[in-house]
Structure formats: structure tokens, C-alpha cells
Amino acid sequence: MVKYALTEPQVDLLREIAAASSAMPIPPARIQTSWALEQRDLIKRTWRGSGHVAVVTADGRYYLKHGKHPRQVQVEKERLEGDAAQAARAPADGAELISRLQSAPGKIAVPDPAAQTRGRWRAAYYDALHHGHVPTGHKLRWNGRQRGDCVFTLIDEEAEKAAQPLPVPAIDVPETLVS
Q: Which superkingdom is the protein from (predicted)?
């Protein structure tokens, strides 16, 4: 998977190359930066004379104009296409979320949901918390509120306490040590 985000030095070099009227010579200190831009297809590099020269590509101009790589935008569009169908599979309320967690091994993962789907799962989570659907002696946890996978876990509080290490006893130390 290609990392589309750019560092500040990469963006600066991309701007310099785009502003040049012809192929821009790349100084030796910035060869690695230009390589990173070339790997993302934002520039084309060639060897001319005694060093590299570079020109910006259409993808590079798009990045400068919109602040995102065009392939990153396409991946996001593809991810959102199936969002309505995925959102429809989200639990309707907190009771349904808890019943799914109890029938599963206590954990449900929703892989990188889009906004509508994440919102439906969030609503079910808060419904479970605020309307007493969480069973006594259990906690409901949710990871992935903003981005990434949403993971809902129903935790048995007694089992969690038993898994915690015992507290370390306090030892009194005298003010002065005698040898």
C-alpha cells in the first residue's frame, strides 16, 4: 500500500518543481525526497548531464491544488460506495448491539467504516450505555471513534479484576540506614 501523505519537505520540493518553467535540477541533498515523490507518481525524474532533473506530473498538480493524491480520493470514493449497505447491517439500537456481543465472543470489529456506518454503530453504543442495556457486572468499550476499525467489546468486570496484577505492598524505609 502506498502512503499518500507527504511531509513538509516533500510538499516544498513538489511546489518548487511545479513552479519551475522547465525540468528542475535536483540537488544531491534532496535526492531521497525526490525519490519519495517519484514513488507516488507526483514527479518524473530523469538523469541529465551530471544529476537528476524532475518535472511535475498531472497527479502532482492535482495534489498541489487539492491537498490529496488522486488515488487517495479514488480509494475513499470506493470505500464510501458500499456505505449504505454496510450501514444497514449496523444494529438498530443498544439492545441489538449487546445481543450481538453476547452471541459473538464478546468482541465485534467493523473494518474501517465510512461516516454513515460509524454513526449508526455510535448511536447503538450510546443507546446501550444510556438505556441500561449493558448487563450488570460488564463494561462496554469502543475503540475507533474517529478513524480505522471500530471495535466493540463487552468486558466482564470480575474477570478483568482477576487478570489485574496484585498491588505491590508498601515497605517502610527508616530515615537513616545503619550498617
A: Bacteria
